[in-house]
Amino acid sequence: MTTTAANQLTIDAPTTGGLKYTDGNQNAGKVLTSDANGVATWRYSAVNLISGTISTATSAVPLNQNYVYTGSYIDLPPGKWNVTVTMIINYGVDLQSGAGLWIRSTFCDSSSTFGYSTDIIGPSYRISGGLIGPAQYALLQGSITFNNTTNATKRYYYWKENSQWAGSTNPTWNIYNFGSLHDENSIIAAPIL
To answer: Averaging pLDDT over each range in 26-30, 44-48, 56-60, which range is the top one?
Structure first.
C-alpha cells in the first residue's frame, strides 16, 4: 500500500489479485458496487442474464387439462430475479371469429406436484396469454419475481395452469408443445440489483 500516492489507496500487485473483498455475497460474475452511503457489496451486473431450459419433448395437452408440467425449467442462484417468459400458444387449427382461449402458467418448486413456488414474491404468481379467433397462434408473455434465499442454486419448474375458453372453442382439443420446442419460446432471468 502506498500512503503518499495521488489517490487515497493504491494497490500494486501485478501478479496476484490486487484486492480481495469478502462480504458473503462474492461470487463469480458479480461486480463490486456501493449504495448511496458508499457501503460496498458484490452484486450481479445487469448483463448477467440466465437462460432457462426449454423442453425438447413433443406434447399435445387438451385445453381443459389443468396443472401440467411442461418439462421446462430455470436454475437461479441466490438473490432476487425477474424471470420473463415468452411461449407460443398453438391451438393446431384456426379458431373461428369470436372464439377464444386463455392460458395461465406459473413456476413450482416440484416437477411432480403443483403448487406455486414459495420463492415467488409477486406482484403476480402467473404469466397468462390469450388466443382470439380467427387465429391459430398467439404469444403468452410476462414476468414473475423470485427471491431465492437459500445459499445454493435452485430449480424452478414451469407449469401450464388452468385455462378458459369461449365461443366455438373445443376444450378437448389440444394445445401443442406448450412450453417446449417452438423457437420463439424462452425463459430468461435478470438479477434485481
So the answer is: 56-60
- Tell me how far apart the 2 most distant CA atoms of the chain are, in Å: 81
Which grid cell sits at 146?
423470485
Give the number of other Cβ atoms within 10 Å of residue 152's Cβ: 7
CA 160 from chain center: how many Å?
14
pLDDT per residue as tens digits for the range 105-164: 999 999 999 999 999 997 889 999 999 999 999 999 999 999 999 999 999 999 999 999
